[in-house]
Fold this sequence. Notes:
By secondary structure, the protein is α/β, with parallel strands linked by helices. The chain is built from 7 helices and 12 strands. The strands form 2 sheets. Strands 3-2-1-4-5-12 form a 6-stranded parallel sheet, sandwiched between helices. The longest helix is centred in the first third of the chain and has 14 residues, at about 75-85. The protein starts with a strand and ends with a helix.
Amino acid sequence: MLILGGTGEARALAAGLVDAGLDVESSLAGRVSNPAMPLGRVRVGGFGGPHGLAAYLREQGVDVLVDATHPFAATISANAALAAARANVPLLAVRRPGWTAAAGDDWTRVPDVPAAAAAAAASPSGTVLVTTGRRDLAAYAHDAMHEYVVRTVDPPHGPTPPRMTLVLDRGPYTVDGELELMRAHGVRLLVTKDSGGALTEAKLVAARQLGVPVVVVDRPPLPAGVECVDSVGAATAWVLSRAG
């Protein structure tokens, strides 16, 4: 089986299936330096679009394909759906549940990063904490009115906000750490993606405690017809049921 990975769910799924005696290969996009490696065989890099992935599935005799990529990896998910259909390989998507607002939260949901950047630019003066990733910072490059604190795992390339403080860090994060970060920089708005999970949820708790509004970017939809589960346990059962 082939797991399109890079997430904690992908690593947990690979570990369980390797323990069950399956031949598991995980594919990592290679966009993050020093990624955590899953059990089983690992390949790094793209396939050359859906045609290349379909060819790989056929050449390697892959029986099951699991898309356990980040909820915002829309291009990879679209390629997986096309490739699985062309190679006639069963496909399952694994997506952790998204976040939901709790009492005391002040959230504004937007459909994409450009909308989030527009909301940040239109917000009252103050510092904006952006945690939407290094690949989307060009959307904020036109805003010279706000101070931006941008947190990414690796340094960004390309346009960035003119008034930017870059924080290089990798989760998991703690509530105390997020409170310290927001207080130190006087954060007045948080911009984040609805990634879900506990690894980066602390920033939402900190924003709630400080009364900081949050702009939440909604997830892109999965390709039509793709079966999806929201837990590693369900994904494991799905795979094992097809492994005989």
